[in-house]
Amino acid sequence: MEIVYVYVKKRSEFGRQCNFSDRPAEINVDIQPDPEQILNYIERNPVDTGVQCAGDMSEHEVNTERFEMETRGVNHLEGGWPKDVNPLEMEQTIRYRKKVEKDENYINTIMQLGSLMEHCIKQNNAINIYEEYFEEEETVEVTDEAPSAKTINVFSLVGLLQWLIQGAGGSATETPNRPELVLRPSSPLVCLEYNPKDSHILVGGCYNGQIAYWDTRKGGLAVELTAVELGHRDPVYGVIWLQSKTGTDCFSASTDGQVLWWDIRKLSEPTETLVMDISRKGILENALGVISLEFEPTMPTKFMVGTEQGVVISCNRKAKTPAEKIVATFSGHHGPVYALQRNPFFPKNFLTVGDWTARIWSEDSRESSIMWTRYHMSYITDGCWSTIRPAVFFTTKMDGTLDVWDFLFKQNDPSLSLKVCDDPLFSLRLQDNGRFIGCGSKLGTVTLLEVSSRLCTLQRNEKNLATAMFERETKREKILEARHREMRLKERTKLEGKEEEPKEEAVEEKPEELLERVQKEFFDIIESELRRKERAKSNPQAGRSIIALGSPHIALCQCCRVGSLLPGNEHALQRAAFMPLSPTSPASYLLNSLGPESPPKTQDPNHAFYQAP
């Protein structure tokens, strides 16, 4: 390394300029050798001397002009809207566009860029970029492919799943076995949700009833927590972000029977409270514990909750009184409703998962679900709709199985049943593109699955077929509900008529007369039974209740209300085996043949997911 020192002084301080010239050599000092000094030295023999035959080399470095390189990425979101403008709100976007278009800088910029873009616009007009080069080739039908799924990866230490919808574009494939960030709450987390407007912010519900939110840019510790005395009294099983201008509003639900609204800028107290008391009296002791929560951004005033008692409650936040906020209830499960989600294509229909079945409901039919799966041998723990196909949904079970249902393809059994692991599966989440599924097990491992293209590709006329299926099943349930109401009204009228009849004066009977009358009634009953048995032996067809519906020989069983196609035109109620009707059979309902003594629908596993025509 060269050592350089720079002197700084004025030119006048250097003195007179030096003039150099050549001259011959001259001796200034001549020191003669001293013979006495030779006694201090000895001769060294032998002498080692190194010799280098190659020429001396010197190291030099040469480099051209250096340019520093750095990697940059560009990400474009729809419109590049500011945070206070919701891209989903049409009025806000139109108002913001008009404001920008009136700006002088915007007009000048457009005029300057117009000349640069003119060439590209003319080029696009001259070339058809949408031209089909392979129109004559036959298109491959996706429906020919069998449903399938394969495991992509297995992660550990996870109990809840939530896909990050919008991110900065970073890749997580470099360290698939190590989390990017570990959140450290004060109490075990039960639920967690990303903020749809800012992917760095998350909100979660804790087991002790607190609500906490994190900013991933500030580390794994919670930025702020709610007060224990002002929050939930039980674990928070659901928390969802609301669509607001600020993007800071959310609401939570717990098994204490309360739904609380929060603003993360001020978590000291909830902004609003609703008690899930279906009697509409607002008594917390009578409230039903909430275990699942559902909110559709396209319906900002409505939300639904699933309770521990198997009841689904539909609510309207903007109602005037707390009693009016509870709009409707749907009862159908024998246990807690673990999953609740609206169909992304038909928000009027929603999916519930509880006990041993998964059910599909319609808001127009409150008495019963319109479709349901058969009863399984193990509990169903979670479920969700496909984000691409309106007729496909997924369920997980306690035996570690993932079931894929396509009710346009098969109704009685799942289209695909995959054994993911030996441990119970408790959580399920589907990515927006519908191809990747995350399944969380009891031990905290997550299995990432990729489904086949058939399960994540919209089929031809699938929306129309699904719409027809939902409408047909809803209409069928409405007819059954009307019939049940009519039967109950007749029974109530009979009871009221009997009560209004004048009561005869009771005559006090003697014990001997009372005993004689009871004995006579007993023997009369025995004789009638003996006569009935004799008639049954002589005529085996006697005693059967037949419903003749005529061509095309379609019968409806009163005991389980499952239709069947019979070789004749008679259908005996004692028959045990039935063949469910095809969902596309062009037959009428023919429900007027039901007698007033028809019992309610059975949940026979052999007839589950029955589709009436």
UniProtKB/TrEMBL annotation:
InterPro entries: Dynein_IC, WD40/YVTN_repeat-like_dom_sf, WD40_repeat_dom_sf, WD40_rpt. Its main location: cytoplasm. Residues 491-512, 590-613 are annotated as: Disordered. It comes from the Eukaryota. SUPFAM superfamilies: WD40 repeat-like (SSF50978). The keyword Repeat applies. Gene3D superfamilies: YVTN repeat-like/Quinoprotein amine dehydrogenase (2.130.10.10). One of its GO terms (molecular function) is dynein light chain binding. One of its GO terms (biological process) is outer dynein arm assembly. It is found in: Cytoplasm, Cytoskeleton, Cilium axoneme. One of its GO terms (cellular component) is outer dynein arm. Keywords: Cell projection, Cilium, Cytoplasm, Cytoskeleton, Dynein, Microtubule, Motor protein, Repeat, WD repeat. Transmembrane segments: none annotated. PANTHER family: DYNEIN AXONEMAL INTERMEDIATE CHAIN 2, DYNEIN INTERMEDIATE CHAIN. Belongs to the dynein intermediate chain family. This is Dynein intermediate chain 2, axonemal.
